Amino acid sequence: MTSADGGQVALIIEVATRLFAALGYDGTSTRQIAEAAGMNIATVNYHVGGKRELYLAVMERAHQVEKAALDQALDRLPGDDPVVAIHRLVDDYLDFCVDNPEIPALWMHRWLSDASDITELERAYVQPLVTSVAAALRPAAESGVIDGAVDLEYTIWTVIWSVHGFAKGGVLDAEGRRRGPGDRAALRRFRAHLHLTLHRTLALPEEPA
């Protein structure tokens, strides 16, 4: 593949990611992607294949970006203060979703049965990440830092649901206007609420600062 070909592939995937995140797989056509990328359908098909292959490439790229960020965050999890480390992990995840809003959007479309005929993505991409976070937190539960009665997997999912919902939908203010991650006050308030909720759910020994 030449550098020019590589550049076209990168552009196609970037444009497809944006459209799939906004409209979903079922609501996006290859023609829309080609037009947004300034190409014809034949060029898109030549570089990445059909719509299904392009969607798989988009989701693979999204997974690799998320996995790299999570691996980096988990590398910092062991430390002298597991409570601080857990809160840092939550901050890292929230910051990742705020900085990469297309990734929560892609998965939220799947929550609504988008691309329902493509069934392997959750098993291949999501479950291993959830399992790795649970495994990283388990020593804190075994040592008593986290309440042993807590369902770690469901706690992790609760964070995912909350963060994705805020990243995609935001919250309504007193006037009924939607405030999302781009609103610093809303983001700061959500972050504080998320930390407090997680802290109390895990029954951690000290209240977060």
From TrEMBL:
It comes from the Bacteria. Keywords: DNA-binding. Residues 29-48 bind DNA. The keyword Transferase does not apply. Residues 6-66 form the HTH tetR-type domain. One of its GO terms (molecular function) is transcription cis-regulatory region binding. The keyword Translocase does not apply. Signal peptide: none annotated. This is TetR/AcrR family transcriptional regulator. It comes from Nonomuraea turkmeniaca.
